[in-house]
Amino acid sequence: MADLPRRFSDADAMARAIFDRTGGKVRLALPLGLGKPVTLVNALTRLAAEDSALSLSIFTALTLRRPDPASDIERRFLEPAMDRLFGAYPALDYARMIADDTLPDNITVSEFFFQAGTWLGNSYAQRHYISANYTHARDVLIAQRPNVLCQLLGPGDDSFSLSCNTDISTDLFALREQGEMDFVAVGEVNTNLPFMPGPDAEIAPEALAMLYEPATSFELFSAVRRPVSDAQHAIGLNVARHVVDGGTLQIGIGAIGDAVAQALLLRDRAALAPIWQDAPFPLSGDHTGPFDTGLYGVTEMLVGGMLSLFEAGILRREVAGAAIHAGFFVEARDVYERLRDMPLDRRAKIAMKPVSFTNALYGDEAAKRAARVHARFVNGGMQVSLLGDAMSDSAKPGQVISGVGGQFNFFEQAFALEDGRAILTLPATRSSGGETGSNIVWQLPVTTVPRHMRDMVVTEYGAADLRGQTDEEVIKRLICIADSRFQQDLLEQARAAGKIAPDWEVPQAHRQNTPARLSAWLRPYRATLLPDFPFGTDFDATERELLPALSRLGVAAADKKALAGLIWASFAQPAHPREGPAMERMGYPPEPALTEPVQARALRGALRLTARDQASNA
Questions:
Q1: pTM of the prediction?
Q2: With contact defined as beta carbons under 8 Å apart, do 162 and 170 qualify?
Q3: What is the β-pairing status of strands 184-189 and 160-161?
């Protein structure tokens, strides 16, 4: 074993050695997200594509792809900044082949979780999707009888780190050690990957059969932070009142996760009292003070907001020597830098674990119960029905946007733990095709979390505690946190179904759930306490000016009347203060001209309307 691993500087040579080792048939266990050794996987894919006698079966999840602009306006915005925003991350050849419908028959790819929206409308990806809870994905993988485990590794002095992906790999190595699995473990070293220490994250060199050591490591994928809207900040302000000091926390990725983390940071600084006092909507939850004891984090995904809470000393209640236990991470580049720069003893307080630990109670259950007190598991949904079931992973029947992931796992934990709560967050409305619709609906086309596990739902208009309530009470509470434009229609549907008393009406305190009222509440705090990017951004100043205008243009694109309104505004409204640099950034002349393209004219109008709104809100 002392001569292991066999080391390679040529990925193609190592790929050939892997196929030789397996008799030309590779059943590849490939980590979710960031942990994919892209150079090596591409070498395996190329060899199989060139030789139909070889067989390559890939089981994975969350294949990361930089966006492919769907329109000219997207191309103009994204292409000049693609590397800065998403990292110079190499494309995975199998993903390109799936997208282009060129994947050969001797290569198969199955995923149990998608990068959100990436594979909508792609027949191959949708047909080969496997629906599985995160905790069950390991067993689904084992049933595929993988003979190769291939992972990106962070180099250490005398060991390697599984780093961003202990989620399933840690268990696979343990099962092999116990004689319950037999596979060849291979890896690719990447010096950009933070070395995460600990018994579940570190592996000895002899655990690997082969190792690819490139002269230069590829740049890691960077997940772009989105601006946090009024609705998302309001959701965070509501959630923060339900987090118990001395308790346990899990939050997901995205703008709502950032909003929740920012609200908890402000709560600890006793900075939220004025905002809560000004709230025009009823608030619930009485946990509003600083974190004197601190929180313990147990989460499948280590997100930037959780790291900020750790750095601020809010996540400091330790369990088995760690303030955070997490299963994987994919984040913005600054998160990787902060982890790499953190002293090793401090970094060890963030212990990477398998999701069989983070997402489940079974296995050392007594210790987990003792540690996970007052747990608050905060995750996002897409729609909630008036009966309390939730849709979080599909756009329409049969078309998967992402996957269930670990969401259901945390609902299960919340119900199993004493004082555990699963908090489902979502904006009250969504816009599509120029129309606004309610995210609280009478019925759902697809269910991710069933109604018998309804717990707590939070929108920008408040929190609805649904656990243990009658159907009628659930309906009432959800209507009260719906957008008021849709409340009456929801109420009429509930009446028609005989699920609510005929004489019940929406209480007066909940009849003004409108974006205008929400904006008026938060406006005084947006430039200071509730910024668009509470944890920073890779967008430059001009791009940040463009984002709200592009959002406005995107909404108007499917509505001829709205688009005409933008064009008219380009003539009728004063110029945006930074209109020239913004238009140049998009590849258009800085000054308006009657002959400029309609798209440019509409963008100019969107910029001017955005400037008008910002001035009126100042």
A1: 0.95
A2: yes
A3: unpaired
